Automatic annotation (TrEMBL):
Family: Belongs to the GST superfamily.
PANTHER family, per the entry: GLUTATHIONE S-TRANSFERASE GSTA, GLUTATHIONE S-TRANSFERASE-RELATED
EC number(s) stated in the UniProt entry for this protein: 2.5.1.18
Source organism of this protein record: Novosphingobium taihuense
Lineage, highest ranks first: Bacteria, Pseudomonadati, Pseudomonadota, Alphaproteobacteria, Sphingomonadales
Name of the protein in its database record: Glutathione S-transferase
Limits of the GST C-terminal domain: 88-247
Residue ranges annotated for the GST N-terminal domain, each copy included: 1-82
C-alpha cells in the first residue's frame, strides 16, 4: 500500500512530516503543491483535506492531517530502526511538551511575520475581484482573514508583539540547548524536527535575533541538524519555494 504525502516545500509545517519520512527512510509518494497557484484550495485537494491545508497524509483509505499528528502517526504505524520518539513515558512527555509549544506558540508568531513579509506578495497584483475569488475557495474562515491581512499588511502593533514573542522563543530554545545536545536530553526526536522546521530559516530571516553572537547554542543545533544525511537528502529532492519579501 502506497503512502502519499501532500505538502509544500521543506519549510514550516510541511517540513515536519517530510523530514520524518526522510529520517525514517519510508517509501512515500510525495506530492508537492504550489502555494503560488493556490493548489491547496482546489476542489481535488479539498476532497482529500476539506480544510484546504497541507500537509496531508493518505494511507490507503485513511487521511491524516495536522503536521505533528502525521509525524506521530508515522511513528505508530511504520516503526523503523530509526526511532524519533523516546521509548519511556517521561521522555515522550518531554518530547510532546516541545511539539505542543511549537504548534501553539513558536510557529504562530513566526508565521505571522512570514505572512506579512512574503505571502502577501502572491496576491498583491490581483484585482479586488480576482482576490475575492481566491478567498471564496478557502474553507477556513480564519485563513480568509489571514489572507486579507497579508494583502493589506498586518497592523504594526500586532507585528511588534509577534516579534517580541519570537525574541522570547529563540532565547528559550538557546537557553535549553546550552545544556543539551537535543531538545529531549539524549535523543534526536520529533521535538527537534518540529522546532527545526520553524527555526531553520531564522538565521537568514531573523538574523538580528538568531546569530552566533546572541544565540550560539540555537545556531549550533540548527547547523548540526542541517548536517544530517536525511536533511541533506530532503533539501536535494524536494524543492523549496522562493518568495521575495514585501517591498
Amino acid at each position: 500500500m502506497t503512502l502519499k504525502l501532500y505538502s509544500f516545500g521543506p519549510a514550516a509545517n510541511s517540513m515536519k512530516p517530510l523530514l520524518t519520512v526522510f529520517e525514517k527512510g519510508l517509501d512515500v509518494e510525495k506530492h508537492r503543491l504550489d502555494p503560488a497557484k493556490f493548489e491547496h484550495h482546489t476542489d481535488w485537494f479539498k476532497a482529500i483535506n476539506p480544510r484546504g491545508q497541507v500537509p496531508a497524509l493518505v494511507d490507503g483509505g485513511k487521511v491524516v492531517t495536522e503536521s505533528t499528528v502525521i509525524c506521530e502517526y508515522l511513528e505508530d504505524e511504520y516503526p523503523t530502526e530509526v526511532s524519533l520518539r523516546p521509548a519511556d513515558s517521561f521522555g515522550r512527555a518531554q518530547m510532546r511538551i516541545w511539539t505542543k509549544w511549537v504548534d501553539e506558540y513558536f510557529c504562530w508568531c513566526v508565521s505571522t511575520i512570514g505572512w506579512h513579509r512574503y505571502v502577501g506578495n502572491m496576491v498583491k497584483d490581483l484585482s479586488d475581484a480576482e482576490f475575492e475569488e481566491k478567498v471564496k475557495a478557502i474553507p477556513v474562515v480564519e485563513q480568509q482573514v489571514k489572507w486579507r491581512r497579508a494583502r493589506e499588511g498586518f497592523p504594526q502593533d500586532l507585528l511588534d508583539e509577534e516579534m517580541r514573542k519570537i525574541g522570547y522563543s529563540v532565547r528559550k530554545l538557546d537557553d535549553h540547548l546550552a545544556d543539551h545536545e537535543w531538545l529531549v536530553p539524549g535523543q534526536y526526536t520529533l521535538a527537534d524536527i518540529c522546532n527545526f522546521a520553524i527555526a531553520n530559516g531564522m538565521p537568514f530571516g531573523f538574523k538580528e535575533l538568531v546569530n552566533k553572537e546572541d544565540t550560539p547554542h540555537l545556531v549550533r543545533w540548527i547547523e548540526q541538524i542541517n548536517e544530517r544525511p536525511a536533511v541533506k537528502a530532503m533539501f536535494a529532492q524536494v524543492e523549496l519555494e522562493k518568495l521575495g519579501p514585501r517591498e
